Amino acid sequence: MQYTSFSNESYQEVKPQHGFLEIENLVKSYPTPDKGDAVVLDGVNLTIGEDEYISVIGHSGCGKSTLLKIIGGFQKATSGSVRLDGKEIRKPGADRMMVFQNYSLLPWLTVRENIRLAVDEVLKNANRAERISIVNEHLAMVNLTSAADKYPDEISGGMKQRVGIARALAIRPKMLLMDEPFGALDALTRGKLQRQVLDIWENHRQAVMMITHDVDEAIYMSDRIVLMTNGPCANIGEILKVPFQRPRDRSVIRNSKEYFELRNHALNFLDHHFTSEE
Ligand SMILES: Nc1ncnc2c1ncn2[C@@H]1O[C@H](COP(=O)(O)OP(=O)(O)OP(=O)(O)O)[C@@H](O)[C@H]1O
Predict the structure, then answer these.
(1) Ligand 1 centre from 66 Cα, in Å?
(2) How many structural domains compose the chain?
(3) Crossing angle, helix 111-122 and helix 128-141, to 10 degrees?
(4) 14 located within any domain
(5) Which atom of ligand 1 lies closest to the CA of 67?
(6) Residue 85, Ramachandran bin (φ over 0: left; ψ between -120 and 50: alpha; else beta)
(7) 30 lines ligand 1 (CB under 6 A)
(8) Domain ranges, residue 18
(9) Which residues are in the ABC transporter domain (predicted)?
């Protein structure tokens, strides 16, 4: 793996002292009908701290979602290992919650019921009053208290995504896995929701891995940005450390020299890894 070649040393990768999620030599291939195995991920190594916010950027088809699904336990690695808190990940679990771009809410349940269902399913030791309180707390956290009794088709895309995030957070996962969570939203709603997610994360620190195609979003939100090389046989090309203090003010960091350099470095990397097929 290469690391950044910035003259400013602060951009160099700093591994978290205590690896919470540890990915070692991860390989994932799929069988093809005629050409043997197609290798999607080829030897991914990554360590994430328990309160780190990591973004993953790479061209379409390089294997970002595959990586997230393996961490989520929805797919199996072909070889290598993925451990969370020292335990090998073999199947989905309530310690890792996924948030998808397409919301994935149950349309026949209200906003409140969508969150309640997950809480009932996972927090089996909590009594009824505690579960109601957790649901209400998370509805309030994403400003959805007044929409609690609406159905998904009665609310906007941004609100649906907030339900998905509240549902994921309500069961108190150790790690949040987000696959382009703001991808389907208009720019204004996206900006607001990014801020809300950061506010929540700053108050309830947990490990986050977020896939995005947006370099500005990655810089604004993350501690480190993982840049993937193109597939097939994709790998981690570089890991960039984001040097800005939190809480971040988007308009302030955007005007800094470091922001400009970091953004250009990421964009140049992506340009460099642009295949002729794209
Ligand atoms: N179940 C599967 N069976 C066979 N091939 C698959 C399967 N799932 C994914 N792939 C292939 O693996 C590669 C990586 O797919 P993946 O969805 O992980 O990429 P991605 O980087 O998330 O793309 P995008 O940014 O477009 O969402 C693609 O070539 C895809 O066709």
Answers:
(1) 6
(2) 1
(3) 130
(4) yes
(5) 18
(6) left
(7) yes
(8) 9-95+173-272
(9) 21-255
